[in-house]
Write a structure and sequence with these properties.
The chain is α/β, with parallel strands linked by helices. The chain contains 13 helices and 19 strands. Helix 6 (185-194) runs parallel beside helix 7. Bound molecules: pyridoxal-5'-phosphate (PLP).
Length: 427
């Protein structure tokens, strides 16, 4: 029943490295061939063999209204008819920036880019430009895109200089990246004691790239205080949590305010958009107002802006939207937990807004090392594979979060729990 996908994958592998344009799509960590998608239909994906899947990936986060939302589609079509790109300012950019500024009370200005990678890369340049310092602190297991200084792993020992996690990244480029352990206050303090050259901390306030692992309130507070004491800026990477964890992202559910916020995913509603934002003093350092250079031929693209604008306005207009999305997320993972317990399988669950996570583990992990140590990856691989066969499309790695869309009904979630029960009986 995957014949056409297998054929498509083999053909793709001839002309595209690994057959995919982003490595996670290749299903390497769970095995098997990725289904090639023909179209989306609301909460579902349909592949080239005609299989239908309830989609918990949603293009890795952007599609909070599911596939082919009529309003977003209409806005995109109307905008396309006026031209695809001008390389000149449009009113749509101001409108989308205004929507974002209105949602974050400490933000005055937004610069649009084309991906989350670009957003974090530019935010770091801005932080360095504003503070005149070079080093950055990032946490093991947080993902901020694939720019050189962020593609690092912890060296030996904590609070160590990052070492490149990919060939092609010179060690010289990552020597300014200090890698600390997530949710480890002592470790972070030590890092600031050892260096007086730290320009910023960049953090996923609710990590979604080592599975769903929220930062503790105390840890975030410590990040804020250490930045304030040491003249560093706090960058909250909300590329995934933005407009997902709550209507105002992680910002809406944590006590700490970031100096620079990065966005992506939901603000483009499926079109390539990223953004970074801050107060007017910080953003004043950015070209053309200031000296920190940053640019983009297709940045603020009208079609992408129209999609994002419609999506954000729609999010704001539906009362209790995130409460409802979270109710469904909780229903799903609680259902999983019940059937897991029934089948004697240890499972850890958590949710934030429309984001959910589950780990096949005895204890809840709080950082990357614990995710790696506690979780049964083989069991996850089997679970993933069997769920795909039953028509439920989950991220193909335990290091990823899952997402609920507004078009997912209680019945769909109930069906998914029934399927999970069947799968877990043989896990
Ligand atoms: C997805 C993601 C990125 C990278 O965004 P791209 O659009 O894939 O470049 C950065 N940060 C976080 C937190 C993300 O989830």
């Amino acid at each position: 029943m995957f014949e056409k996908s297998i054929e498509a994958y083999e053909e793709a592998c001839q002309v595209i490295p690994g057959g995919v344009d982003s490595p996670v799509r290749a299903f390497k960590s769970v095995g098997g061939t990725p289904p090639f998608i023909e179209r989306g239909e609301g909460a579902y994906l349909v592949d080239v063999d005609g299989n239908r899947y309830l989609d918990f990936i949603q293009s890795w986060g952007p599609l909070i209204f599911g596939h082919c939302d009529e309003e977003i589609e209409e806005a995109v079509i109307q905008t396309v008819k006026k031209g695809l790109s001008f390389g000149a300012p449009t009113v749509l950019e101001t409108e989308l920036a205004s929507e974002i500024v209105e949602m974050y009370d400490h933000i005055d200005k937004v610069r649009f880019v084309n991906s989350g990678t670009e957003a974090t890369m530019s935010a770091i340049r801005l932080a360095r430009g504003v503070t005149g310092k070079n080093a950055i602190v990032k946490f093991e297991g947080c993902y901020h895109g694939h720019s050189d200084s962020l593609l690092v792993q912890a060296g030996s020992g904590l609070a160590s200089l990052g070492t490149p996690s990919s060939p092609g990244v010179p060690a010289d480029f990552t020597k300014h990246t200090l890698v600390c352990e997530y949710n480890n206050i002592e470790n972070l303090r030590k890092c600031f004691e050892d260096s007086d050259d730290i320009s910023c901390i960049i953090i996923e306030p609710i990590a979604g790239n080592m599975g769903l692992v929220p930062a503790s309130a105390e840890f975030l507070k410590e990040c804020r205080e250490l930045c304030d004491k040491n003249g560093a800026l706090l960058i909250l990477d909300e590329v995934m949590t933005g407009f997902r964890a709550s209507l105002t992202g992680a910002h809406g559910v944590i006590d700490v305010k970031g100096d620079i916020i990065t966005f992506g995913k939901v603000i483009g509603a499926g079109m390539p958009v990223g953004a970074f934002a801050a107060n007017k003093e910080i953003m004043g350092h950015l070209s053309p107002d200031g000296a920190v250079y940053q640019a983009g031929t297709l940045s603020g693209n009208p079609v992408a802006m129209a999609a994002g604008l419609t999506s954000l306005r729609k999010l704001k207009s539906i009362p209790n939207l995130h409460t409802e999305l979270n109710r469904k997320a909780v229903k799903l993972v609680k259902g999983f937990k019940e059937v897991a317990t029934k089948n004697n399988i240890p499972l850890q669950i958590d949710t934030r807004g429309s984001m959910f996570g589950f780990f096949f583990a005895d204890k809840m992990p709080t950082n990357f090392k614990e995710v790696s140590a506690f979780c049964d990856f083989e069991r996850f691989g089997k679970f993933h594979h069997e769920m795909i066969k039953k028509g439920f499309y989950f991220a193909c790695s335990q290091y990823e979060a899952g997402f609920i869309s507004t078009v997912m009904t209680d019945t769909m979630i109930e069906e998914c729990i029934v399927a999970a029960d069947e799968v877990m009986q043989n896990l």
